[in-house]
Amino acid sequence: MGKTAVITGITGQDGSYLAELLLDKGYRVVGVTRRTSTQVNERINHLEGKLELVSADLLDQSSLTTVIRDTRPDEVYNLAAQSFVPASWAQPVLTGEFTALGVTRVLEAIRSVDPGIRMYQASSSEMFGLVREVPQRESTPFHPRSPYGVAKVYGHWITVNYRESYDLFAVSGILFNHESERRGLEFVTRKITDGVARIKLGLAAELRLGNLDAQRDWGFAGDYVRAMWLMLQQPAPQDYVIATGRTHAVRDFVRLAFECVDLRWEPYVVVDPRFVRPAEVDLLIGDPAKAKAQLGWEPETTFEQLVERMVRADLERLSRTVTV
Asked: Is 16 assigned a catalytic role?
């Protein structure tokens, strides 16, 4: 009999890639979704019939406990969060409820039902914020620069606290930026590739962006979910930085995306102050040495391949809407 895994946030980018990975490994996959009037399942529609979906909410302790008690998973992957950084300034309290206290509720559900369940918590490079050292590693102090980053720091440390207090196998993956064609359109990378495709197809004339000088360590989401799984297969629970070890400015992403469609970027890109964060995170670059040494994990997709993959996918999607 294969293992059972529960994934919160299964309808998101990472959740969909992780579900594919676990299904390929013979897992029974149970996805947790919020009960809403409209279900947004486009990222997992192709997995219909292969996984189970149940309703629960990170704001509701009893619903989470019920899911854990009814499914009796071997592993829980907590990927659900209010994960759009700019929105965390507009909704800081809600971000804290989901992204911080929601982690505690998942841990409590596991502790009360079966402390032997292994849990993965999705931490974030945004926790480093105003970075204290370059590159950032597992021992680098946190200095978050957004309500989202602050909430992620709480989620990270409460996971450590439950591991040390209750002997849970609970780990955090400190994942640096990871993207794909399944990324939401509100995120800057997808905003860029969607905008480039629209300009190429004559559907738009410009692309408005914020800080082009911000630097990020970008990888492919499909590579990063493999690291999540590997963390829960280890003999002892530890936290890991998952990154490429390479950094690029937003400007580099823009330039490569336009090059994919044989256009220069300068005539089309407008810097709009509305999209500049109140407190910017200028430079994130991770040191994945521990993950490489202990997990045997390395990214397989290059930055250049990632950008091209995303642009091609948006071109194909939008081409279907253009009448000849």
From this structure: no
pLDDT of 154 > 60? The answer is yes
Q: Which fold, 184-216+247-283+301-319? A: UDP-galactose 4-epimerase; domain 1 (3.90.25)
Closest CA to 207 of 261, 277, 246, 248: 261
- Is 148 a residue of the active site? yes
Give Cβ neighbours of residue 64 (< 8 Å, ≥ 6 apart): 32, 56, 57, 58, 105, 106, 108, 109
Catalytic residue among 77, 148, 162, 268: 148
What does the domain layout of the chain look like in residue ranges?
4-178+218-242, 184-216+247-283+301-319
Annotated catalytic residue, options 83, 88, 123, 124: 124
Active site (annotated) includes residue 259? no
Selecting among 17, 20, 123, 126, the annotated active-site residue is 126
pLDDT value at 324 more than 50: no
pLDDT tens, position by position, 64-117: 999 999 999 999 999 998 766 777 888 999 999 999 999 999 999 999 999 999
Half-sphere exposure of 302 (CA within 13 A, CB side): 4
Of 126-135, 154-163, 257-266, 274-283, least confident by mean pLDDT is 274-283
Fold of 4-178+218-242: Rossmann fold (3.40.50)
